[in-house]
Amino acid sequence: MQQLILDLALPAERYLAWYRGHAERVSMISRDGRRVSLPAHHLRPFLTHQGVYGSFVLQFTDEGKLIKLERLAD
């Protein structure tokens, strides 16, 4: 198992592209500089009226399969 820390600032209007079918994935860069492409639906539990903001830990297998995505405490 591996994990990455992600700091995300995704305004609601950008996230709406997923709802409209214009985007399927969200691309971001982890704190250690690795590019991550995540299916947008995994961020839905964290979506507010403002968008998706915060720091998250992404756990995944050595093959790159998502295990868990959770928000870090503020």
Tell me about this structure.
The protein is mainly beta and 74 residues long. The chain is 11% helix and 49% strand. It contains one helix and five strands. Strands 1-4-5 form a three-stranded antiparallel sheet. It has a two-stranded antiparallel ribbon with strand order 2-3. Strand 2 (25-29) and strand 3 form a beta hairpin. The model has no long low-confidence stretch (mean pLDDT 91).
Please specify the SSE layout and strand pairing:
Layout: E1 2-11, H1 12-19, E2 25-29, E3 35-39, E4 51-60, E5 66-71
Antiparallel strand pairs: 1-4, 2-3, 4-5
Largest sheet: 3 strands, antiparallel
The coarse overall form would be globular
Structural class: mainly beta
| Average residue-wise pLDDT | 91
- Radius of gyration, whole Å: 12 Å
Low-confidence stretches: none
Q: Give the termini separation.
A: 24 Å
**Number of continuous helical runs:** 1
Order of helices and strands: EHEEEE
Strand content: over 45%
The main sheet orders its strands as: 1-4-5
Count of DSSP strands: 5
Fraction in helix: 10-25%
What's the gist of this structure?
With 74 residues, the chain is mainly beta. The protein has one helix spanning 12-19, and strands spanning 2-11, 25-29, 35-39, 51-60, 66-71. The chain is 11% helix and 49% strand.
Task: Sum up the structure in keywords.
1 helix; two-stranded antiparallel ribbon; three-stranded antiparallel sheet; mainly beta; 74 residues
